[in-house]
Design goal:
eight-stranded parallel β-sheet; binds 1,3-dihydroxyacetonephosphate; 15% strand; single chain; globular; 8 strands; TIM Barrel
Length: 229
């Protein structure tokens, strides 16, 4: 199983350091076949040691240059970061990233050999139209994406389940993952209100290869409890 923590715009450099120290103690008993990823805010990237992979939530497709507010390869290489989230719904919806832009970003980081966690997810109005509409919507988010890329991990995160406390049902997750796996044979994570109370149920669903956790990953006790289920 893959357990990924996306801190979003939470935690500072100081609290991330304390988090990772606490996590390392707890992960001592982690199963060898499980892997853990931590995506702190960019200001907290550093040389951390431990039984996890440190990734970046976002970066711009450049080595360096005049892109105010962005970071590029040069800033990632300083900390040997080789893992990135691309296509998260918050970047699509709030930051206005369109599929064409996301595709360019994906290709750039693919060319540079990054492991990419590529996020897809449908809004509530699409979910309400039923399974067929959901799959059509999700597959459209792969437009321009090389789904055969060997370092690709996909994360299915229904937008209506993110940060709402309302996870998708077991049936919704199972059906959606099964349908996606017909087209994309890559590790597939579920994200959206994953928490200690539902981690067992979710990781037991056929076709779920791991989880991408936001809110419930912010507390190290809560996140490590999920990793050690
Ligand atoms: P929540 O776990 O807070 O619902 O967030 C999920 C998410 O967006 C992870 O990337």
């Amino acid at each position: 199983m893959i357990f990924a923590a996306n801190f979003k715009t939470n935690h500072t450099r100081a609290t991330t350091k304390a988090y990772i120290e606490a996590l390392n103690e707890k992960l001592f008993t982690k199963r060898v076949q499980d892997s853990v990823y931590i995506f702190p805010p960019s200001t907290a990237l550093d040389h951390y040691k431990g039984n996890f992979t440190l990734g970046v939530q976002n970066a711009y497709m450049t080595r360096n240059g005049a892109y105010t507010g962005e970071i590029g390869l040069e800033q990632l290489e300083e900390f040997s970061i080789k893992t990135i989230l691309v296509g998260h719904s918050e970047r699509r919806e709030i930051l206005g990233e369109k599929q064409e832009f996301i595709t360019e970003k994906f290709s750039y980081f693919k060319e540079h050999g990054f492991e990419i966690i590529y996020c897809i997810g449908e809004p509530l109005e699409i979910r309400e139209q039923g399974d067929e509409a959901v799959i059509e919507y999700l597959l459209a988010q792969f437009e321009g994406i090389d789904t055969s890329y060997e370092k690709l991990i996909v994360a299915y995160e229904p937008i209506w389940a993110i940060g709402t406390g309302r996870s998708a049902t077991t049936e919704e997750i199972e059906n959606t993952h099964a349908a996606l796996k017909k087209t994309i044979q890559k590790p597939l994570l579920y994200g959206g209100s994953v928490k200690p109370e539902n981690i067992k149920e979710i990781t037991n669903i056929r076709g779920v290869d791991g989880v991408l956790v936001g809110s419930a990953s912010l507390d190290v006790e809560s996140f490590s409890k999920m990793v050690l289920i």
